[in-house]
Amino acid sequence: MRVLVLDTIHGGCDIARALRLRGDDVDAVDVYRGTGFPADAAAEKTYDLVTAPVHLNPAYHLLAKARCLTHHEMVRDLVTAPAVSVEITGARGKTTTAFALASLMNGRGILHTSSGTFAYPEKKFLWKKSITPASVIDACDAAKNCGAEWLIAEESAGVAGFGTLGILTSADDYKIAAGTKSAVAEKCKSLEWCKTVLVPEGVPAMPEWHVTQELVSVSADTLSWDGGELVNPLLSLAGYRAALSTAAAAGILLGLSVEKLADFTALPGRMCLLEERGVVVLDNANSGTNADNTIEAAAYLRKMRPGLPVILVIGMEHHAVCEGFPASEINRAIAGVAPARTLLIAESGSGSAAAAATADAVFTTLDTAKSAALEFAEQTGGCVLLAAKTWR
Q1: Which range marks the domain in which residue 371 is found?
Q2: What is the DSSP letter of 296?
Q3: What angle do CA 226, 228, 233 make, to 5 degrees?
Q4: SS3 assignment, position 117
Q5: Looking at 49, 71, 93, which one is the last position of a domain?
Q6: What phi and psi values does residue 41 have, to the nearest 5 degrees?
Q7: In the chain, N or C: fewer CB atoms in 10 Å?
């Protein structure tokens, strides 16, 4: 089959490699940088199939070359997954939900997340890649090679649809594909291929789908379900409340012992309180960081360390994060936190850079901004809140 793969930045190279191994004749075009196989040359050729990411502008001229599958749909055709396979997507809470659910699983498995891919039960780190659907190809190969009984895969902008359980973690929506598509609508469309589906309230659910809030409920630090309950202090935080609720509901659907979530602890970059160089740091820098959870993080930090001035590190490090962190939301977060000092992370010309007027200093990476924040905190006796949107 002659296949045209569009967008090598967002997983196209992995898809092209898998297609070639299958025996297909493949051209891969970088639609943004113009490297690789030339778009002009592809326009002159004939193809049997085109595959492109769901977020690509539908007006892109090469999409009309042949029947088109999304990268998610293409990956579904390319992988063989374990008998128990869970696919997780959503604007927020994907990584925490994935780790929480993995803590309930039994036997040998593979956990694939934006924080890394791990072999269980040893929790051995294998590699770290993006969570484009194409990255699931390697995760499925790893599962096959180690005889895994299960796979949990975090995926951006939807799921491939091979899952025995497909999960949407958040009803939050934003526009993709040059503003022509609803991200939630596309995610729900992809979930229809999964055998069982779990979604949150606020999403138009099909009759056979399960709703998280109908399976579990949370009051303060207690999570309850039909036949049991557990206590975990993290449930008092909105981000963990949603993720642990989703993981618990998924565990119920999979027949697992949900009680083990009582021992689940904070993940790096997800409301994780720690100390560096003698400075208290609340690390909430991840791909789901937004104004609301930044304001919540500041309240949590002040509750845990009352009286300390807060140095806020905020912004967006990598533009690969689909839903972005616009200047209006950054400014709303800064106003809500009211920090003693604000260090902004933004690349020149980016949407985040428009918030520079409200910042005391501007940096291009999380590491450099964090180092400066720690130095300032050492001098003033303050604490640091990391609230950058970045893949971790």
Answers
A1: 272-389
A2: H
A3: 120
A4: strand
A5: 71
A6: -70, -40
A7: N
Name the token pair of 103. Answer: 């803590």
Which mean pLDDT values do the consecutive 10-residue runs of the chain (392 residues) have?
96 97 97 89 97 97 97 98 98 95 98 97 96 97 98 98 98 94 97 98 94 97 96 91 98 98 92 94 90 93 94 82 78 96 82 71 94 96 95 70
121: cis peptide before it, omega within 30°? Answer: yes
What distance in Å separates the CA atoms of residue 390 and residue 128, rounded to the nearest whole number?
14
pTM of the model: 0.84
| Claim to verify: residue 233 and residue 312 sit in the same structural domain | no
- The last residue of one of the domains, among 236, 263, 290, is 263
Same domain, 140 and 246: yes
Adjacent-strand bridge partners of 274: 281
- Distance, in Å, from the CA atom of 42 to the CA atom of 29, rounded to the nearest integer, reads 8
> Taking a C-beta distance cutoff of 8 angstroms, is the pair 89, 97 a contact?
no
Nearest to 15 by CA among 70, 66, 60: 70
CB 386 within 8 A of CB 313: yes
Cα–Cα distance for residue pair 270/368, rounded to 1 Å: 20
Please tell me the predicted confidence (pLDDT) of residue 6: 98
Amino acid 320: pLDDT: 45
How many independent structural domains does the chain possess? 3
Given this model, what pLDDT does residue 357 score? 74
**Cβ(95)–Cβ(115) under 8 Å?**
yes
| Domain CATH code at residue 342 | 3.90.190.20
Pair of tokens at residue 30: 């970088």
Strand ranges across the sheet with 150-154: 124-127, 116-120, 109-113, 150-154, 84-89, 165-168, 196-199, 210-211
Distances (CA, A) of 344 to 239, 300, 369: 23, 21, 7
For Cα atoms 346, 348, 349, give the angle at the middle one, nearest 5 degrees.
Answer: 105
Alpha-carbon span 205 to 211, nearest angstrom: 8
Residues 6 or more apart whose CB falls under 8 angstroms from that of 227 comprise none
